[in-house]
Amino acid sequence: MTVPLLDIRNLHLAMRSFEGEAHVLNGVELCVNRGEIWGLVGESGCGKSLTGLSISRLLPEPPARYISAEITLEGRDLRALSPREMQALRGKRIGMIFQDPTTNLNPTARIGTQLVDVALAAARHDPTILPPARSRRAGARALALDMMRQVGIPDPEARMMSYPHEFSGGMRQRVLIAMALIGRPDLLIADEPTTALDVSVQAQILTLLKAMVAEHDLGVILITHNLGVVAQTCSHVAVMYAGNVVERGPVRQVIERPAHPYTRALMAAIPTRDTPRGGLQGLEGTVPDLIQPPPGCRFAPRCTRATEACRAAVPPLTSQGPGHEVACLHPVTEDAPHV
Amino acid sequence: MSESTSDPILRIENVTKTYAGRSGLFGRAAPVQALKGVSLDVTRGQSFGLVGESGSGKTTLTRSILRLEEPTSGRILFEGQDMAKLSAKALRALRARVQIVFQDPYASLNPRMSVGQIVTEPMAIHHDLLRLSAAQQRERAAELLTLVGLGPQHLGRHPHEFSGGQRQRIGIARALASGPDLLLLDEPTSALDVSVQAQVLNLLIELQDRLGLTYFFISHDLAVVRYLCDRVALIHHGSLVEEGPTDRIFDAPQTDYARMLIGAAPELRVP
């Protein structure tokens, strides 16, 4: 069996707050191979972003405290690395894209300068990424231009001289994708990369992301709250609720035969072309208090199928079909009503 | 209701809005045409959806309806009255009948005011019209909160004690406080999670059925517009590209722009 690109096991994370310690990640398990795009979905506060930040170790400790965590990148234990080694890894092996393309660019530096800087920093760890040129800087410039072309920025020579404010939101997000991919990462973590963008631009960015995965054989974690985006873009999906992965598997299985009542509820809340007026189903209740989480399945208090057994212990992920796993004692087996 | 139902409650006639270009160190930039002759009718009791991407002019149009912005040319008629020709007093009276629910429920509620103060404020502002005593205002605030799915027990609480969905319910209660006929809904669910969005959308439908409200719903989410609206207008670069009954627009779009927009919305279906 080959070693997966990214393997997360037993990820338990607590966050200190004024009211006490909140148990925000409760045994997250996720495994990503090259060429796979994993959609990480769930409502606000379910731990999607914290999972992403835990991989690249960007959470300050304290307030974060890892109760347990096994995170390996091609078999290498990320938790055991020194901060310096981790920093090298972040620039080179793990690329990240965040939601807001405006705040992640330096407003006072030209786009070209920012891309060349990233290329030079990445080349310190792996000089082979630079094309042959007179100098390192000339090589970095050539690489930056090439990346801008690849992410579909027209007239890259001229746009290198522009400042971020001269770019539209979609173009800025392309710059950030170029930046994240410039060091040829193996793993790309994209946290809501299209949420701030118009749908037409969103479609372009997601198409670009898919093309980049095919071309560079990356593994991607796409954090989003939009199941439509997942259905259109991802090869796999992991649904999170209150710090747990409650269902995971190939996107078709999960979208067409969602087995966890929470996944079902999430999908019933999205209007489709056939939803009659007033026919949308909201999800009653609220996300549980994570300082004193309910015992057992954290979704049980809102679940219509819950029994006493659900409140006794957290249900483990069990197989529901090839590669399709669900953490539920009473999984739904009928086909989803919308497909 | 005095008018017949076929009369539009809101008529927008050939409205243009031009912003003068910014003048800087190197002279003046070209003027920006935010709206280029927009005309549309909103029928009483219906939900009218205005869809556009960022920079399309939908906010300028909304602000013009509220008279927070003066159109460069064209007219905006509310129940047949030209809003530009109203006296200050008549405009104030009209404002009680046209209310808005904002996009961001975290930014649109004053954190220092209690929910009771937030919901009674429009009643105090329009006191000359509503003539409610302080006790009656409080009673009505409690009724409104119950109507939106909260309750009298929330009157003394402050916005920070509520979730996003509950805050948007408070925003809706405030908008209903002055007894409006027309509600402008400016992306009221785009800051909410889907499960909460579904609750708020269903609440809007329930309120419309119960109170006979007219909605002018601004959004970039086509699925939500399709769910809620009877008619849709697509706006692009300040011009209406297409307008018509919701089913017709979605099933048989006539323009390339409409086809592109509908095609780009990610559907919950694995390709």
Automatic annotation (TrEMBL), chain A:
<dbReference type="GO" id="GO:0055085">
    <property type="term" value="P:transmembrane transport"/>
</dbReference>
<keyword id="KW-0472">Membrane</keyword>
<feature type="domain" description="ABC transporter">
    <location>
        <begin position="6"/>
        <end position="267"/>
    </location>
</feature>
<comment type="similarity">
    <text>Belongs to the ABC transporter superfamily.</text>
</comment>
<protein>
    <submittedName>
        <fullName>Peptide/nickel transport system ATP-binding protein</fullName>
    </submittedName>
</protein>
<dbReference type="Pfam" id="PF00005">
    <property type="entry name" value="ABC_tran"/>
</dbReference>
<keyword id="KW-0547">Nucleotide-binding</keyword>
<dbReference type="InterPro" id="IPR027417">
    <property type="entry name" value="P-loop_NTPase"/>
</dbReference>
<dbReference type="Pfam" id="PF08352">
    <property type="entry name" value="oligo_HPY"/>
</dbReference>
<dbReference type="InterPro" id="IPR013563">
    <property type="entry name" value="Oligopep_ABC_C"/>
</dbReference>
<dbReference type="InterPro" id="IPR017871">
    <property type="entry name" value="ABC_transporter-like_CS"/>
</dbReference>
<dbReference type="GO" id="GO:0005886">
    <property type="term" value="C:plasma membrane"/>
</dbReference>
<dbReference type="InterPro" id="IPR003593">
    <property type="entry name" value="AAA+_ATPase"/>
</dbReference>
<keyword id="KW-0067">ATP-binding</keyword>
<keyword id="KW-0813">Transport</keyword>
<dbReference type="InterPro" id="IPR003439">
    <property type="entry name" value="ABC_transporter-like_ATP-bd"/>
</dbReference>
<dbReference type="InterPro" id="IPR050388">
    <property type="entry name" value="ABC_Ni/Peptide_Import"/>
</dbReference>
<dbReference type="GO" id="GO:0015833">
    <property type="term" value="P:peptide transport"/>
</dbReference>
<dbReference type="GO" id="GO:0005524">
    <property type="term" value="F:ATP binding"/>
</dbReference>
<dbReference type="GO" id="GO:0016887">
    <property type="term" value="F:ATP hydrolysis activity"/>
</dbReference>
<keyword id="KW-1003">Cell membrane</keyword>
From TrEMBL, chain B:
<keyword id="KW-0547">Nucleotide-binding</keyword>
<dbReference type="InterPro" id="IPR027417">
    <property type="entry name" value="P-loop_NTPase"/>
</dbReference>
<protein>
    <submittedName>
        <fullName>Oligopeptide transport system ATP-binding protein</fullName>
    </submittedName>
</protein>
<dbReference type="GO" id="GO:0055085">
    <property type="term" value="P:transmembrane transport"/>
</dbReference>
<feature type="domain" description="ABC transporter">
    <location>
        <begin position="10"/>
        <end position="262"/>
    </location>
</feature>
<dbReference type="InterPro" id="IPR003439">
    <property type="entry name" value="ABC_transporter-like_ATP-bd"/>
</dbReference>
<dbReference type="GO" id="GO:0005886">
    <property type="term" value="C:plasma membrane"/>
</dbReference>
<dbReference type="InterPro" id="IPR003593">
    <property type="entry name" value="AAA+_ATPase"/>
</dbReference>
<dbReference type="InterPro" id="IPR050319">
    <property type="entry name" value="ABC_transp_ATP-bind"/>
</dbReference>
<keyword id="KW-0067">ATP-binding</keyword>
<dbReference type="GO" id="GO:0005524">
    <property type="term" value="F:ATP binding"/>
</dbReference>
<dbReference type="GO" id="GO:0016887">
    <property type="term" value="F:ATP hydrolysis activity"/>
</dbReference>
<dbReference type="Pfam" id="PF00005">
    <property type="entry name" value="ABC_tran"/>
</dbReference>
<keyword id="KW-0813">Transport</keyword>
<dbReference type="InterPro" id="IPR017871">
    <property type="entry name" value="ABC_transporter-like_CS"/>
</dbReference>
<comment type="similarity">
    <text>Belongs to the ABC transporter superfamily.</text>
</comment>
